[in-house]
TrEMBL record:
Keywords: Plasmid. The lineage of its organism: Bacteria, Pseudomonadati, Pseudomonadota, Alphaproteobacteria, Hyphomicrobiales. It holds the Pfam family VirC1. This is Chromosome partitioning protein ParA. Gene3D superfamilies: P-loop containing nucleotide triphosphate hydrolases (3.40.50.300). InterPro entries: DNA_Partitioning_ATPase (IPR050678), P-loop_NTPase (IPR027417), VirC1 (IPR009744). It comes from the Bacteria. Signal peptide: none annotated.
Length: 216
């Protein structure tokens, strides 16, 4: 069964493309057949893909929203297991099309009051479309009470993915090299956090099995 996750936020600078790329690579390394779609005209993932030297990894295509439904159908027929979609980091009407085709939406958010406020339009759209979603705290300072404050603020709005992603040089260096952090520094703290994040997402994607209740 193919599943679609998307990274959506109407607030730029949240580490959306960086997180999407590393999560896609982590899923691929765990044996998933992964395809990445980019709808962001800024082309961060396009640049990342063009920088890749690795022969194996998630496959990639840059499209616009008019091609989205056909692309999803084609990838499903081709037997892909996971589609990771990167979206524009701005208020864009095409983001709703991505939300509609997604099984799970992730909202990257830095632990700042500005970012928390900036998430609200995205959350409202997801609630209106009745789509499951979770926040991913990104670019977090190490050992800071700011992260706990952000978690408390977001908890009232929805689910929070684990773990928070700490701001580390490996993320930027990996993107520049066309790699996921788990490829760039497999034993580093950034790689460990991204693997944990993918495992958390994967768990949420698993279908809930209803237990049989025996009659008394």
């Amino acid at each position: 069964m193919m599943q679609v996750i998307s990274f959506v936020t109407q607030k730029g600078g949240s580490g959306k493309s960086t997180t999407a790329a590393s999560v896609a690579v982590a899923a691929f390394e765990e044996g998933r057949r992964v395809f990445m779609l980019e709808l962001d005209k800024q082309g961060t993932l396009t640049d990342w893909t063009e920088s890749r030297a690795a022969e194996e990894g998630p496959e990639f295509e840059r499209i616009d929203s008019t091609m989205l439904e056909k692309a999803i159908s084609t990838l499903k027929e081709a037997g892909y297991q996971l589609v990771v979609i990167d979206t524009p980091g701005a208020d864009n009407p095409h983001i709703n099309a991505v939300m509609r085709v997604s099984d799970f939406c992730l909202i990257p958010c830095r632990p700042t009051a500005t970012d928390l406020k900036g998430c609200l339009p995205t959350v409202q759209s997801l609630i209106r479309l009745d789509k499951p979603f979770a926040f991913v705290l990104t670019q977090c300072p190490p050992r800071s009470g700011r992260v706990d404050e952000a978690r408390a603020g977001l908890a009232a709005l929805g689910l929070i993915a684990e773990p928070p992603i700490v701001s580390r040089a490996d993320h930027q260096d990996a993107m520049a090299a066309g790699m996921g952090v788990t490829e760039f520094n497999a034993t580093g703290a950034a790689a460990f956090e991204i693997r944990q994040l993918w495992n958390w997402i994967d768990h949420k994607l698993q279908p809930k099995v209803k237990k049989n209740v025996k009659a008394a």
